[in-house]
Structure formats: C-alpha cells, structure tokens
C-alpha cells in the first residue's frame, strides 16, 4: 500500500495559515537615512558595504527605489571563513550575483510579512526566499518579539536585528548568510562529502533519480557518521539485498507536502493536549516510518517494529515504538531548488527492523 497517511497534531508546519492583507504596507514607516548611509555608518556592516561597492551595487541603494537588504554582520562573514577583504578580491560579476541573493525589491518589514510559515518572496536573482514570523494562536510557544526585535526567520536564518528602517528600504541583520540554492537535492548531495554513503545507498536501492524531480519537498538524509555509528559503511550498504530489505532501509524520508526549516517549529503553535501544547507535536506517519517533531528536540523517531511486538499497547507518550530516541538535525536547512535537505546524525531504522 503506497498511500501515505499524514497526521498533523498541532498546526501544519508545511502549509500557509493566517495571512494579512498585503505584503508591503502602503503607510509603512521609513527612516531618514538611505540604506547606503546606514551601512556606511555601521562598522559591523563594513564587509557587506565594501562588497556592494566592489560589485557596483552601492549606487542602487542610494536612490529612491526601495530595497530590502538581508545583511550578515562582519562576525557572520568571518565565521563563514571570509577575511575582512576577501569579498573585495572576488570577481565583480560573481560577487554581484552572490550579493543579490540577499537583496529584494520593495521594503519588507517584519510586520508586513503575512503571519504564516514560509511565505515566499523573490530576491534579485529570482530565487525563492522563505519568510516566517510567529503564527498567532492560543498555544504559540514563541513570543512575536525577543528583546524588542520582531522575530523573523528567512530560509531558516534568524534576523538578530530586524526592521532597521531607511528612507529607501529596510535592513534585517541576519545570523547566517543567505546563499543561492543548490540546483537540486541530487546535486547538493553529490557535491557534499558528508553524504557519500547515503548517495550510494540511494543509488543501490533505486531512489537516486527521485531527488532530481520538481518539488517542493523535504529530504531527511543521514550523514556518513550516522551509518558509522552502527558499524556500516558504503560497502556494507551496497551489499544489502534489495529484495530482502525495504527501500526505506537507507534511512531517507522524502516528504512531499511542502518545505520546513528547523526554525518553523517555534514559529508555529501547537494544539494543547492533556500535558500541554508540547505533548501534541506534529507527527507524520507512513507505512514504514513515523516522524515526530518535538519543540525542544527536532528530530526523527525510528519505527521500531521489534518494540511494537514487545509492547502491543495503544500508542501513548513514552511508548518506545512511538517516542524512541530522537535523531536531531545536526546539519539542517540546506536549500535546493526542489526543496530542503535536513541532515541527521542518526539512522531512522536499522536493517534488522526492515526485512520485507
């Protein structure tokens, strides 16, 4: 039976919820200085502004046309391995494309973003950017603002300071660099050495081409370390009999209902259960596995068939086959043109559980 049953306890993280009227409010407040002036006078943004000058984009943010800038601070660039002058030594054309990932037309403040999960805007390169703000509800686990800054997540990154208003737009200071998406999930995995064993497993079980189709979708992918924890390597995976073992043995979950980032679990409220909102996490059930998303520990729960046989009781909080050890997303939020890759440090099911 190939049909997948989806049970969502709590708000649907992968669907739109409540929306405001318009993405850009006509009476939106503005600042007195231009975007260029704000960047020039803030030393923590010097790497971004110097890069804008080198790429020939600085004149664009001095005029009357409005833009939204998703600016990493100097500390964010340096944490990503960039020296203070690295960006200025890049080819100007390549740098221009790189910076345009972080620039959108129009002035998009956090209060003009519809109150939903993963609302799509497009940057100057035409790529989708997913904006999320806390969705209101009686069991929202996150306040709409933290230390006076409105909560705003973009492609899973967090605005450490939002709504820096300029006369010609707005700046959101981000804790990660907004990068271009990979061409596909297949392309991302093929070029990432952390997933070589998973790639071989997908090819061995005939699932590799399913990662090069149109999305949106989410792929939960185990790293090489996840296989190594259980004494497996690529040779062991390729030696598995595809007739005797279910395809899901390779540990992947391809979720076709939309996309999600790890930050979405705080932005979406849960329904209240007997033990409070956290006792009703979103759950996705298929014939082969169950995904449980806990607000305190986002991860995957293996469908442990042995435990189902040993504990033949109704599913309930604490039952090992329903709430087993969580495998966290330790390599999260990799954006591809057909979806998101969420890397996990654990296999979601072991070979002994998945004989046909």
TrEMBL record:
GO terms for cellular component: extracellular space. It comes from the Bacteria. PROSITE patterns: FAS1, PROKAR_LIPOPROTEIN. It holds the Pfam family Fasciclin. InterPro entries: Adhesion/Biosynth-related, FAS1_dom_sf, FAS1_domain. Residues 32-178 form the FAS1 domain. This is FAS1 domain-containing protein. It comes from Chitinophaga parva. The lineage of its organism: Bacteria, Pseudomonadati, Bacteroidota, Chitinophagia, Chitinophagales.
């Amino acid at each position: 039976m190939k049909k997948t049953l989806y049970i969502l306890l709590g708000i649907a993280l992968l669907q739109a919820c409540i929306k405001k009227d318009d993405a850009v409010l006509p009476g939106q407040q503005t600042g007195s200085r231009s975007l260029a002036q704000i960047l020039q006078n803030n030393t923590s943004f010097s790497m971004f502004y110097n890069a804008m000058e080198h790429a020939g984009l600085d004149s664009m943010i001095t005029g009357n046309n409005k833009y939204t800038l998703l600016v990493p601070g100097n500390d964010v660039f340096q944490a990503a391995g960039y020296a203070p002058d690295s960006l200025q030594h890049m080819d100007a054309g390549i740098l221009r494309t790189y910076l345009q990932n972080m620039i959108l037309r129009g002035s998009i403040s956090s209060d003009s973003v519809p109150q939903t999960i993963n609302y799509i805007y497009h940057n100057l390169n035409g790529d989708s950017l997913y904006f999320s703000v806390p969705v209101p509800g009686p069991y929202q686990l996150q306040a709409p603002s933290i230390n006076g800054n409105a909560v705003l997540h973009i492609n899973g990154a967090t605005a450490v300071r939002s709504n820096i208003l300029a006369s010609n737009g707005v700046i959101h200071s981000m804790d990660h660099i907004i990068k271009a998406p990979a061409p596909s999930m297949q392309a991302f995995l093929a070029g990432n050495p952390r997933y070589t064993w998973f790639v071989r497993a997908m090819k061995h079980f005939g699932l590799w081409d399913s990662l090069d189709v149109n999305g949106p979708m989410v792929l939960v992918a185990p790293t090489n370390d996840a296989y190594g924890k259980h004494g497996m390597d690529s040779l062991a995976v390729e030696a598995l009999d595809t007739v005797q073992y279910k395809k899901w043995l390779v540990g992947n979950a391809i979720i076709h209902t939309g996309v999600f980032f790890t930050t979405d679990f705080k932005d979406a409220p849960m329904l209240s259960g007997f033990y409070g909102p956290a006792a009703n996490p979103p759950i996705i059930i298929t014939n082969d596995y169950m995904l449980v998303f806990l607000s305190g520990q986002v991860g995957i729960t293996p469908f442990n068939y042995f435990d189902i046989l040993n504990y033949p009781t109704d599913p309930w909080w604490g039952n090992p086959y329903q709430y087993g050890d969580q495998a966290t997303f330790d390599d999260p939020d990799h954006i591809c043109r057909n979806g998101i890759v969420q890397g996990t440090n654990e296999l979601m099911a072991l070979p002994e559980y998945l004989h046909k």
